Amino acid sequence: MCGRFSLATEQPILQDQFDFIFNEELDYRYNIAPSQNILVIGSNGQERVGTKMQWGLVPPWSKDTKIGFKMINARAETLDEKVSFKQPFKKKRCLILSDGFYEWKKQDKEKQPYRFIMKDRRPFAFAGLWECWDKGDKPLYTCTIITTTPNELTKDVHDRMPVILPPSEYDLWLDRDFNDTEKLKSLLVPFNDQLMDVYPVSSIVNSSKNESAKCLEPTNSL
């Protein structure tokens, strides 16, 4: 499961690294939670385009948008089997930008939060899917983060991790005309643990109401 992450990297750095068009201003986000709007990158066939979508996928056939709370993640192993994800997996794939994600490990009676980042401290991209729900007053665009089995670094904390795509696969993942299911699923594997780092953070991240740089700071806990 991936239920909380951050994106507190300067916008020019993001646009330079991921080469996308985005005409709005981004706020620093230290503790992004489900149901909130997040930065998503798609393709118009010629260029990468950034937009904001609500985190928690709402299928177009759903009668209630509350289903999105149960759809913040999609398991890589069953994307082409589940009704909610089968169609977006073919045509509505996206990148969801992050510079760190949180997971919690049970220690005695408490849960210690950890932050997973890249060793080079650069932002990265989750593999995601998006949808459009049009049964309301205006279209609602939503998305989900794909998860896979853990790598050696994450498995000590959680039994799932978000799919982090290498830059070499961005264009293929965003290509709406490419629908080789087996090839696409082959991209949805645990990220190289040698390129990642982890450290404990304060329990203030437990509440999504806490949105400050303190969420990113390491604690002395081991």
Automatic annotation (TrEMBL):
Enzyme class (EC, first level): hydrolase
Keywords for the protein's UniProt record, in alphabetical order: Covalent protein-DNA linkage, DNA damage, DNA-binding, Hydrolase, Lyase, Protease
InterPro entries per UniProt: SRAP (IPR003738), SRAP-like (IPR036590)
The protein's Enzyme Commission number: 3.4.-.-
Domain of life the protein comes from: Bacteria
Family stated for the protein in its record: Belongs to the SOS response-associated peptidase family.
Protein name (database record): Abasic site processing protein
The organism of origin for this protein: Metabacillus bambusae
